[in-house]
Write a structure and sequence with these properties.
elongated; 4 helices; alpha/beta; 2 domains; three-stranded mixed β-sheet; single chain; 9 strands
Length: 174
């Protein structure tokens, strides 16, 4: 007796990808970060006449030189493969620029709870006020200053809060 093959939808892939965390910010998924930009699935015919289920995932990293690209690509592949696809392809799109506006509101909230100031919404050009009025994730004061434009990763800067006297990282608005 043959067992029925479960039909896996693109929605199932998106749900599985919610479990794939950003390796540099483990409280946020690659979906919440806006790194995964497209999923597609279907069936193709193989030489034996059988059909093969495939999934394709496109990701856009925060920076071209992001050191976590390989880890994210492997984690995405593994999460989708577990769904039962015979073929999984993860493509890194270097032609589409990632923007911090791709992050979900939930991701920004999780960033702040994790101790990293979330990026400002970039619905227009970057302004000096966006760079100067960064809210401290610890005490929520905007009496902060930039200490270094270079944080622990390319997408972060180091700031200092004059109200609570704590240093913190800020996710740069891009």
């Amino acid at each position: 007796m043959q067992t029925a093959i479960k039909h896996i939808t693109d929605t199932d892939i998106w749900v599985a990808l919610e479990s794939v965390k950003d390796p540099e910010i483990p409280v946020i998924s690659v979906v919440e970060m806006g790194i995964v930009t497209k999923v597609a699935s279907g069936e193709s015919q193989v030489a034996s006449g059988q059909s093969s289920r495939y999934a394709r995932v496109t990701m856009t990293p925060t920076f071209v030189g992001c050191p976590a690209i390989g880890v994210m690509k492997k984690d995405i592949y593994d999460a989708v493969k577990k769904l039962g696809f015979e073929e999984v392809e993860v493509t890194v799109d270097m032609d589409t620029a990632w923007s911090s506006d791709r992050m979900t509101p939930e991701a920004k909230s999780k960033l702040e709870k994790f101790g990293i100031a979330p990026p400002a919404v970039m619905d227009s050009d970057l302004t000096e006020e966006m760079l100067d009025k960064v809210r401290c994730p610890h005490c929520h004061s905007t009496d902060t200053t930039l200490r270094s434009a270079f944080g622990s990763t390319l997408c972060r800067a180091i700031r200092f809060c004059f109200s609570c006297k704590q240093g913190f990282e800020q996710f740069k608005p891009l």
